[in-house]
């Protein structure tokens, strides 16, 4: 069956619901039962002049790289500069300021842009912000999970779909809620943002750091729930790295495993290795498949044809991905805004 499905996807035989703002839409499936497209490193000025244009792109996931600057107590947004900002977020706090102000802002500035854009597009489809904490958190410098939550909450308020929203006052863990498919319909998430946190490349290569973002935020969720304060949490930590089976079992102790329902790994590793990814959709977990262009047969990482993107979306939907990502920022909203049924 996998061979037949792959062949169908490769020739572009796919039925998709295109979720583009302003277009008529059919009855909405649950968020957990769809597959959509995201843009890698959307804060990069080479991809979009302004971050608001990344939000305009139609993409369902946008990535931000964040450094905690312990010297100045700032959240820096940059690919490789831990002490400065290098990004397309602008000094814009109102809709009228967008697309015109100075760039290279910190994370708070990026969130200001998101809030201002949200005022212009209150009915937008749900957007996931994938936040790579490049060097991790630093509680000692006042740049820990609690401070991250406070910043996001202050800037975006009730436009964030939070862990507590998935729990709904009914479930005792995110795992229990996901297994019950407590995710809302996509239409119910219009105007909403979700935050996914992953460990950063610098953090992972630090031989003295074995307490990464995923574990730290997982413990943060566990402790907030135990204290009756889960409503403060703004983000979902992700299990990083493609694996066959449930990677939580070998990576985390039993107390935090139930707080992971986002999984994030290389698309080619999942598909080309033949991993059984049905585990993720069967339990209604959110699976983010990165580097979608690299799945065999590879397509352009920057500007494939529209048909190639549609075929790749169909292929990875069949492999149970919730979101696929690449550097396809050159594609129009009619392409990046595509949403299809998850396999």
Automatic annotation (TrEMBL):
Xref: SUPFAM superfamilies: PLC-like phosphodiesterases
Protein name in UniProt: Lipoprotein
GO molecular function: phosphoric diester hydrolase activity
One Pfam family cited in the UniProt record for this chain: PI-PLC-C1
Keywords: Signal
Entry coiled-coil feature ranges: none
GO biological process, one term: lipid metabolic process
Signal peptide bounds: 1-26
């Amino acid at each position: 069956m996998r061979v037949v499905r792959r062949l169908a996807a490769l020739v572009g035989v796919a039925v998709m619901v295109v979720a583009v703002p302003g277009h008529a839409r059919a009855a909405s499936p649950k968020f957990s039962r769809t597959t959509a497209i995201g843009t890698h490193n959307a804060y990069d000025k080479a991809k979009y002049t302004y971050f608001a244009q990344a939000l305009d792109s139609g993409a369902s996931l946008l990535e931000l790289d964040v450094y905690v600057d312990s010297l100045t107590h700032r959240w820096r947004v940059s690919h490789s500069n831990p002490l400065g900002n290098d990004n397309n977020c602008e000094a814009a706090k109102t809709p009228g300021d967008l697309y015109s102000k100075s760039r290279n802002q910190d994370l708070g500035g990026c969130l200001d842009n998101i809030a201002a854009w949200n005022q212009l597009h209150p009915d937008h489809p749900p957007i996931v912000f994938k936040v790579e904490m490049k060097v991790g958190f630093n509680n000692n410098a006042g740049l820990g999970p609690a401070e991250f939550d406070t910043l996001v909450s202050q800037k975006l308020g009730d436009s964030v779909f939070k862990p507590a929203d998935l729990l709904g006052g009914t479930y005792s863990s995110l795992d229990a809620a996901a297994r019950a498919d407590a995710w809302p319909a996509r239409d119910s998430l219009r105007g909403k943002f979700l935050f996914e946190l992953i460990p950063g490349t610098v953090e992972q290569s630090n031989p003295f750091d074995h307490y990464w973002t995923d574990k730290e935020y997982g413990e943060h969720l566990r402790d907030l729930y135990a204290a009756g304060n889960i409503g403060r949490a703004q983000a979902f930590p992700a299990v990083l790295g493609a694996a066959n089976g449930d990677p939580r079992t070998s990576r985390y102790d039993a107390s935090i495993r139930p707080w992971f329902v986002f999984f994030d790994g290389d698309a080619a590793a999942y598909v080309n290795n033949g991993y059984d990814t049905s585990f993720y959709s069967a339990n209604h977990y959110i699976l983010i498949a990165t580097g979608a262009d690299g799945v065999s047969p590879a397509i352009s990482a920057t500007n494939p044809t529209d048909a190639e993107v549609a075929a790749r979306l169909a292929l990875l939907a069949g492999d149970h991905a919730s979101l696929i990502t690449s550097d396809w920022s050159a594609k129009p909203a009619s392409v990046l805004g595509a949403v299809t049924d998850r396999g």
